[in-house]
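Need a sequence for this fold. Nothing fancy.
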């Protein structure tokens, strides 16, 4: 089988929602000065995420890819905040935000490969999720990330369990 893909969303995964400076400090997140200055965005990032994702990719011979509506901006900004190399981008059309979301694009992109997918919105698209899983013939783990906390140890552990069984 082809090497597994590890698809990574940004908002609600690497950049949690409703983060504050004090809560961020407790959880290991720092605000991005660059995104604030250049794009007027208030974002918080945790460098542990980059290290953990790189480790998963290395230990399980899996390929990290971006699956975020940030598209190319993920490589321009987000990767530097968490410490990741440039990654392939699953290009998402913004119009799918209100229709089938990321599912059809990901179905085509990940065809033939096992897939681990970290996202906070799998659950907001219930029917799409069921159809996606029914259409996939390869091992698939949709890993739900709590959007206010962001990617954490339980989700990384779930990914490891899945990748370890391939
Ligand atoms: Mg998200």
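Here you go.
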């Amino acid at each position: 089988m082809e090497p597994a893909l590890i698809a990574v969303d940004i908002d609600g995964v690497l950049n949690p929602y409703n983060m504050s400076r004090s809560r961020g400090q407790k959880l290991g997140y720092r605000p991005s000065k660059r995104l604030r200055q250049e794009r007027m965005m208030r974002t918080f990032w945790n460098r542990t995420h980059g290290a953990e994702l790189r480790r998963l990719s290395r230990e399980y011979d899996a390929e990290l890819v971006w699956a975020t509506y940030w598209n190319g901006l993920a490589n321009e900004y987000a990767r530097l905040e968490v410490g990741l190399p440039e990654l392939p981008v699953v290009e998402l059309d913004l119009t799918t935000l209100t229709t089938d979301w990321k599912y059809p694009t990901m179905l085509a992109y990940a065809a033939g490969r096992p897939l681990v997918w970290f996202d906070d919105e799998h659950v907001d698209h219930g029917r799409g999720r069921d159809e996606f899983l029914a259409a996939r013939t390869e091992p698939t783990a949709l890993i739900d990330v709590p959007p206010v906390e962001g990617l954490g140890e339980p989700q990384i552990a779930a990914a490891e369990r899945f990748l370890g069984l391939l």
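For context: The domain at 5-17+46-165 is CATH 3.40.50 (Rossmann fold).
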